[in-house]
Design goal:
Strand order of the largest sheet of chain A: 2-1-3-4-5-11
CATH superfamily of the largest domain in chain A: Response regulator
Number of domains of chain A: 3
Number of helices of chain A: 14
CATH class of the largest domain in chain A: Alpha Beta
GO molecular function (chains A, B): DNA-binding transcription factor activity; transcription cis-regulatory region binding
CATH architecture of the largest domain in chain A: 3-Layer(aba) Sandwich
Oligomer: homodimer
InterPro entries (chains A, B): HTH_LacI (IPR000843), LacI/GalR-like_sensor (IPR046335), Lambda_DNA-bd_dom_sf (IPR010982), Peripla_BP_I (IPR028082)
Helix content of chain A: 40-55%
Keywords (chains A, B): DNA-binding, Transcription, Transcription regulation
CATH topology of the largest domain in chain A: Rossmann fold
Distance between the termini of chain A: 68 Å
Protein name (chains A, B): DNA-binding LacI/PurR family transcriptional regulator
Radius of gyration of chain A: 26 Å
Largest sheet of chain A: 6 strands, parallel
DNA sequence: TACGGATGTGTGAACGTGCACACAGTAGGA
DNA sequence: TCCTACTGTGTGCACGTTCACACATCCGTA
């Protein structure tokens, strides 16, 4: 079976022939240079006439530049379907890249088959750089990027193995600490946490911040450990906390979805919020405002995270070396009704 | 300021030199052909030694094939942040393309600036085809794809202007009719609808199905028209229905999120579900199972939609001409507790 | 011996682009 | 008059790959 030939498209040669000039002159019209007014007019007419569109593949080959940056999502299953922020991060990155006239291409790595193919894609000259979003810190693709020394930026914690790649994220420890302190200043004394995803840095750090805020008041018993950042986990986690200590008067949920689940469990148990129990969440996602009462939570600047990561890549493409330390964006507390 | 040269990477020439053979032989090892065992061994050793990665841009230029397919999301703002299915559709498409060893690259069109850049990208040889997901049926990018005669497939309704491009979707009219009939067989007689997004085909069709199911029972007054498929719209829409007729005993919500909002409004009004009022949704998203009671709804086979769209593109890449009529995937009713 | 097929290898051209270079004409100043 | 600077144009090459073709060797058979 012979593959169908994609239809022949006009090239600079065709334009040159149509306008009665040479390829070089056409190139100068497209890319700037000395061209006479007549030649320019003839060429521009020819371009629209033959419907010319430049061939990116050829340009990328010659220029070693594709004007494209990959947005690589590792473990999309958990990220795309659970994480309320991933969409906003993408849009933020796209907006920033768009302003710099770069194309964002989003790649998804789900299987080992994907890993290999994406690695090939990244190394093949189709993209000039990469933004990597990963749920966990270790992934084979990260080594590939590191080996290729492809200009890159991480969203979230960078992998231990390559500290030379810059990253952008939020201060999970500090934010968790701040929101827990809000519960304390509200007079809560028996405070529990529904901690999720303790196999990820975000989960670990939020727990660490909680512990730091409570200091001597911290009680291991008052931490319910659930696997995911989702609603169901919140219901289960809150029931567990109530079972362990019915005098609980404050709860820090590791995400808004969890907080929403906690509200449901508290309603079941006949507790009022914020009267009997103060509840705070994390993310400032759409969950926060659709709950009854609306959630006091930590705002994640998702759009800014995306655009910041894009800037980190663009800066490297301009030849600058960003300090590898990474960048933590501010996470303002959003005070609503739940605590 | 001079642009930094991306570091020089090994090419087939380097491998040939290292292995003491010619470029042609290297190419044959990579792409198949008669090669002696010694030559093959030497070349494979050389490949790993110099860390060769093939240059996709050069390959795409020569082969006129990039082995990549674009996943274009028009109006990502509403889709990414509102639509619970878009992530699953993407993953479904990615899985199908992955099996055919094609790379899915997701592009996002948000501004007019994006439109132009993505059009260039699509026409530049970086992708062999495109899957287009659009909230609305009209968009400038569609004309571009049509003009380029790029192998493509639409998710949802195809634009009127080009019926030659195949599409995949669900039968919104039939599904809405079926779920409304479920309310009728449950004995409900005063049935309202919270209709959303009446500027899109999906919204229009769901309303049409509702009307068809009710027949003479249909009452214009019992349709609350809300702008979006979201929770807040559901709350508002349900309040409106209750105000118009307190005897309402059944509600078809145009999405699960809306249904969730409706449940909240009914709780406010002291109505029990499904006792006083039966509520059904649409999508079978995560909303459906996190509601109290869990929603009876229409299952959208999002993953299958994605993989089906991918197949439509892949088939064209193989030179087949899929019937342009389009494909509607089955949408089973999921019976839970809300009606 | 001569021939044809199967197996193995090297060479040249082409994909479409951008850039370095060569070249030509004009104008102005030493 | 010659040299330089500026504007404008054409040609050749390179980017890294694949493929068609030419050539070379070996074996079995007419």
């Amino acid at each position: 079976m012979s593959r169908p030939q994609p239809q022949k498209r006009a090239t600079v040669h065709d334009i040159a022939a149509a306008a009665g000039v040479s390829r070089g002159t056409v190139s100068r019209v497209l890319n700037g240079g000395y061209v006479s007014a007549e030649a320019r007019a003839a060429i521009e007419a020819a371009i629209t006439e033959v419907g010319y569109v430049p061939n990116n593949a050829a340009r990328a080959l010659k220029m070693r530049r594709s004007q494209a940056v990959a947005f690589v999502t590792l473990e999309p299953h958990s990220l795309f379907l659970d994480d309320p922020n991933i969409g906003s991060i993408m849009l933020g990155a796209n907006a920033a890249l768009s302003l710099a006239d770069h194309q964002m291409v989003s790649l998804v790595v789900e299987s080992s088959r994907d890993t290999e193919r994406v690695a090939r894609y990244l190394s093949g000259g189709f993209v000039d750089g990469a933004i990597v979003v990963s749920a966990r810190t270790q992934d084979p693709i990260i080594k590939v990027i590191s080996d290729l020394s492809l200009p890159a930026a991480f969203v979230g914690h960078p992998p231990e193995l390559d500290r030379t790649i810059p990253f952008v994220g939020i201060d999970n420890v500090g934010s968790a600490r701040a929101i827990t302190e809000h519960l304390l200043t509200g007079g809560r004394r028996r405070i529990g946490m529904i901690a999720a995803a303790l196999d990820r840095d975000s989960g670990i750090d939020r727990l660490a911040g909680f512990r730091a805020a409570l200091g001597p008041l911290f009680d291991e018993e008052m931490v319910a450990d659930v696997p995911h950042y989702d609603y169901g986990s919140g219901v289960k986690g809150m029931r567990e906390l109530l079972e362990r200590d019915r005098s609980v008067d404050g709860v820090f949920a590791a995400s808004d979805a969890i907080a929403a689940g906690a509200l449901e469990a508290l309603r079941e148990a006949g507790r009022s919020v914020p009267g009997d129990v103060g509840v705070v969440g994390f993310d400032d996602s759409t969950w926060a405002v659709r709950c009854q009462p609306q959630l006091t939570t930590v705002h994640q600047p998702a759009k800014e995270i995306g655009s910041c990561a894009a800037q980190l890549v663009l800066r490297q493409l301009r030849g600058e070396h960003p300090d590898p330390g990474g960048q933590l964006l501010p996470t303002p507390l959003v005070l609503r009704d739940s605590a």
